[in-house]
Specification:
Elements (H helix, E strand, L loop, with lengths): L1 E6 L5 H12 L3 E3 H15 L6 H9 L8 H4 L2 H10 L3 H16 L4 E5 L2 H5 L5 E6 L2 H14 L6 H17 L12 E4 L5 H15 L7 H10 L6
Parallel strand pairs: 1-3, 1-4, 2-3, 4-5
Helix pairs in contact: 1-10, 2-3, 2-5, 3-6, 8-9
The structure holds 2'-deoxycytidine-5'-monophosphate.
Length: about 230
């Protein structure tokens, strides 16, 4: 079973993906870490992360094991990752690795921005995870402060809006829900409640015939957009 989890920054998709993977005993890939690793390599090697050719070369040889995850999770690397992720050549260089991971025997859980649309359009279950921008900023602020980063609540909110806008506006594989994704609004949910809701959705959808547009459109309409 392939579970594709996409959504906005700090919506809770990463935690959800990890916990769903543990629940279903599936391997998990946080694809954001790949873009973060490319950005961190570019920073470490003094490569301009707007240089598409050089960044694509870094992406082609990216090795997550070489990085300290804490370093990758920082705010500076996150912002740079959003920039390198807008480069088509970087996305193409990372495609095969992600696709293979998704297609491994037994299935997998992947989370990112384009899993349900580009990497695994054939996923058995697609979730789109979102929360209000204020709640996401609150979570991100707590996370970064907990990591010892000197940030203000206002700067975190501004950076989050900037990243959302850039991730959604890029030409290549922009962040967006797949047409057949089920929306999970985590604004008022604890991580445990989010996991419970996601498991309910997975149970209801696994093994179901894929692509039933009428039902999916109705499910999507029934879910209020978090920031509306
Ligand atoms: O999920 P994250 O915050 O770790 O992702 C870091 C950046 O990488 C994010 O701003 C957008 C980009 N990204 C992407 O474009 N496609 C993915 N599948 C995952 C992440």
């Amino acid at each position: 079973m392939i579970i594709a989890i996409d959504g906005t920054t700090s919506s809770g998709k990463g935690t959800l993906a990890k916990r769903l993977a543990a629940h279903y005993r599936l391997p998990h890939l946080d694809t954001g870490l790949l873009y973060r690793a490319v950005a961190a390599s570019a920073i470490n090697k003094g490569i301009d992360f707007k240089d598409e050719r050089e960044c694509a070369l870094l992406a082609a040889h990216v090795e997550l094991a070489e990085f300290d995850e804490r370093e990758l999770r920082g705010a500076g690397v996150g912002a740079a990752a959003s920039v390198v992720a807008s480069l088509g050549a970087v996305r193409r260089a990372l495609f095969d690795l992600q696709r293979k991971f998704a297609q491994q025997e037994g299935g997998a859980v992947l989370d990112g921005r384009d899993i349900g649309t580009v990497i695994a359009p054939d996923a058995d279950v697609k979730l789109w995870v979102d929360a209000s921008v204020e709640e996401r900023a609150r979570r991100r602020f707590a996370e970064l402060s907990g990591m010892g980063e000197k940030v203000t609540a206002e700067s975190v909110l501004d950076q989050l809006k900037e990243r959302d806008a850039r991730d959604a506006a890029r030409n290549d594989a922009p962040m967006k829900p797949a047409d057949d994704a089920i929306w999970v609004n985590t604004t008022l949910l604890t991580p445990d409640q989010t996991v419970a809701k996601a498991i309910e959705i997975v149970e209801a959808h696994k093994g179901a015939p894929k692509k039933a547009p009428a039902k999916k459109a109705a499910a999507k309409r029934a879910t209020k957009k978090p920031d509306a």
